[in-house]
Amino acid sequence: MYTPHAYPVALLMMLFSMLCWGSWANTEKIDKTWRFELYYWDYMWGIVLCALLFGLTLGRTNPAAPASFFHSLDSASLRSLAEAFAGGMIFNLGNLLLVAAISVAGMAVAFPLGAGLALVIGAVLNYVISPVGNRWLLFGGILLICAAIASNAIAYRGLSKSARAGTKGIILSLLCGVVIGLFYPFVAKALTGENHLGPYTVYFVFALGALVSNFPLNYAFMRRPVTGSRLSIGDYFQASRAVHAWGVLGGLIWGTGTICSFVAAYTPMVGPATSFSLGEGNTMISAVWGVFVWKEFRGANTEVKRLLALMFALFVLGLVSIALAPVFG
Fold first, then answer.
1. What DSSP state is assigned to residue 77?
2. Euclidean distance between CA atoms 150 and 181, whole angstroms
3. Phi and psi at residue 295, in whole multiples of 5°?
4. pLDDT 10s digit of each residue in the chain, 329 long?
5. 166, 225, 274: which is closest to 36 by C-alpha?
């Protein structure tokens, strides 16, 4: 299987992961009439398809090697398989809460609050599991990102015309952040120990866990929606192929970023704490999309704009600090 042997290559993979994680949700916003619960089924097929594509290509650069895709699956311990599967289930709940938050509050709010909080929780837990990198730079960067999260939340409350809608968007975003922050440590554990999984097999088992959990979880969101009327399974088949294709593309984009993150985390010089933390810089990428492309803060006053500028500055400083942590570890 392919893994990077130099930090610059691993850094590029983490930055690409950040770009993918911060951009996939654009495919959910393209058709404003297509509800997020229905979009999410196609998104999930894209995640599983991505697992197969990468597992059967980069995961099998040498099919006879013990670490290749099928050999890794066959020799993996039950513990590693269970941890990767559980990680996928936990992620799926958090991500459903994220797209629900996007539908209420937009990308420029849901990502900085949700993914930013996930970064803080996930980075701490991942560092406990595998303490790689300079802890002062890593946690200093995390503190800066916490400040950016606070700036974003205050800006959104200042913009929101409805206190109730603003509160719902913030609550959903924070809930998703807590849940998403818990999934990556399971992946980190599955990548270590005796008879552990490789990054490509971890992602494959992870994707299966997400898919299996999506049937009860997403169906529950359809029957008890956070906004709008109740949906049925029959509603899913009412869309055109083009609409379904956007969802699959969103899953492929997210999956590609996740493969890059897992491969970088598997690299001894990086570790899961730095890989996850830098990937969660997607908060800044998604905020750029939300503010400048989707105009989610249109009509904001001067104070709100200042808070947004402060948020971007704090995010950049925090991400630079996290990226330097492995160099000065």
1. -
2. 17
3. 55, 45
4. 899 989 999 999 999 999 999 999 899 989 989 999 999 999 999 999 999 999 999 999 988 888 899 999 999 999 999 999 999 999 999 999 999 998 888 877 787 788 778 888 888 888 888 888 899 999 999 899 888 878 877 887 777 655 455 688 888 989 999 999 999 999 999 999 899 999 999 999 999 999 999 999 999 999 999 988 999 999 999 999 999 999 999 999 999 999 999 999 999 889 898 999 888 878 788 878 888 888 878 888 899 889 989 988 998 898 889 889 988 87
5. 225
Determine the length of the chain: 329
CA gap 81, 92 in Å, rounded: 17
Q: Look up residue 99 and give its two tokens.
A: 């797209």
* Rounded CA separation 115/314 (Å): 15
Q: Could you tell me which of 297, 238, 295, 294 has the C-alpha nearest to residue 30?
A: 294
Q: Is 233 exposed, middle or buried (0-12, 13-18, 19+ CB in 10 A)?
A: exposed
Contact predicate 181/125, CB 8 Å: yes
Token code pair at residue 161: 């015309």
Question: Is the separation of the CB atoms in 325 and 144 below 8 Å?
Answer: no
CA 158 to chain centroid:
27
Give yes or no for a contact between 184 and 88, defined as CB atoms under 8 angstroms apart.
no
| pTM: predicted TM-score of the whole model, two decimal places | 0.88
